[in-house]
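Teaching soon. Invent one.


***
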Amino acid sequence: MLGAFAKSRLSLLDSFPFQILFQSHSTLLLVYSFILLNLIPIPPFCIVLFSEITDTFVPTCPSMPLGERVDCFPDSGASQEICQERGCCWSPRDESNVPWCFFPTNYGYTVESQETPNSYAIKAKLTRMESPPLFGQHIKELAIDAEMQTKNRLRFKIYDPNNKRFEVPHEHILSLNPTPSSPINNTLQITQKPFGLTPKGMGFDTRMAPIVFEDQYIQLSAKLPSHNIYGLGEHVHRQYRHDTNWRTWPIFTRDAFPNGVNTPAPAVTYRTIGGVLDFYIFFGDTPEQVVHEFLELIGKPVIPAYWSLGFQLSRWNYGNLSIVKETVERNRAVDLPYDIQYTDIDYMEDKKDFTYDKVKFAELPQFAEFLHEKGQKYILILDPAIATSKRVGDALYESYDRGTAKNAWVTEADGVTPLIGEVWPGEAVFPDYTSQACIDWWVDEYERFYREVKHDALWIVSQF
C-alpha cells in the first residue's frame, strides 16, 4: 500500500522469483531473489499512523551524489511536509526523475546481536532504529540468516522472527552443503549501524540506503559495481542492458508489485508488499560460470522432446473433429512440414475439463492414432478452472465432485469456502496447486482422462 488513503490487499500471497545479473570487469554476479506478491484487492481504507518518536526524530541528511538518492516517497503527492513527517530528507532539484524526498543515513535497522554457528554461517538480530514509519505497521525486530552454500554461492534471508509470513516453498532448492569450502567471513561483511550487507569486492552493497520492513511494504537497495545490469524479471524492454536512469521495472507484471528501480549510482532498489527477503548471490568470472552456479542450485532444465520443436498448428473453434481432420489432410496434401495438431477448449463438453463433446468430437479417442500414422503428434488443452454446473442431461460432473470431496479448491479467507469465479464454462472454482490434496486430485483426473482420450502432450493455460 502506498499512502494514507490507499488500496490494500488481503494476505493471500503468491510469489515469483526474479534475477538480476550485473558485471564489473572480471566479476559477474547473479542475484536470485524470492519476492512476494499480494494478489487480491479490497476497497480503499484509511490508515492512521501512530509513532511515539515523530516529534523528536531529526533526519541526518548529508550531501551525496544525486544518483545515490533512494526515493523515500515512491507514492504520488510528495511534499516537504509529508516527506519530513516520514523522517526523510527534502531537497528539490531541477533534474528530472531525481527524488526530492530521500532517505537519511540514520534510518533503518541496527545489529543487536550476531553469532557464527560455524565458519560458513552468520545469524544476527536486528532492531529498528528510532524513526517514523514509512507507511505504518513497521516490524520492530528482524532476523538475518546468511550462509555460504558453496564457494560461489551466498544466500541471505531477512525475515520477521516473531511472526510467520509467507515464504516461497524451497522444496526444489538445495540447502547448505555438508562441506562448504569457503568461510563466510571471506565473502560477506555486515555493518552494524545502520545495518548493511556487503559481499566483499563483489558489489551489491546494501549500505547505500536503509532496509524498510513493514507489514505491507518491504524495500532493499543495493549499490552495484557497474551499469551492466540484465534480467530483473519478465517484462517488455527494448534492449537487454537495462537503463539505469531512474527506471522502474515491474517484476513479472506490468502494473503491480513487486518492482525494481534502477538508479544512476548505479544501484537497484527492490520493492514488494509482503513476505520476506530471500536472496541468492552467485559469483563467477564469466556469464557461463554464473549460469552454471545458478543451475547447480535450481537443477538443470528439462530437455524438450525433439518433436515439440517442430511446426505446430492451433486455433480455437474448429467446430468439430471432421473439420480438424480436413485441416490436417489439407496440409499433408501439400507436404507442409507439420508435426503437431492441437485442439482448444471447443473439443470439451460445455468447456468442462476432463470431458469431450460426444457429438461434435465423437471420435476424439482415436484422433491421436490418426495423427501417429503420419508421424504427427496430438496436444490438447486443459484450463485450471473447474465448472460447478452439471454435465449434459443433468448428469453429475464427477471431476468437480471428486475435487470438492478432496478440498482441492482455492478458498476465501476463511480457508473453507471455495473461491468462485467465472471463466469459459461459467461459474467455476480454481484448483489450489499448493495443496497436496489438490495435486493428488489433479493427477487422478488427468490419468482417468488420458485412459479415455490418448494424446502426446498437454497444453495448460495459466491460472485465471
Remarks:
- Helices lie at 80-85, 287-298, 321-333, 367-372, 398-405, 436-452.
- Residues 436-452 form the longest helix (17 residues).
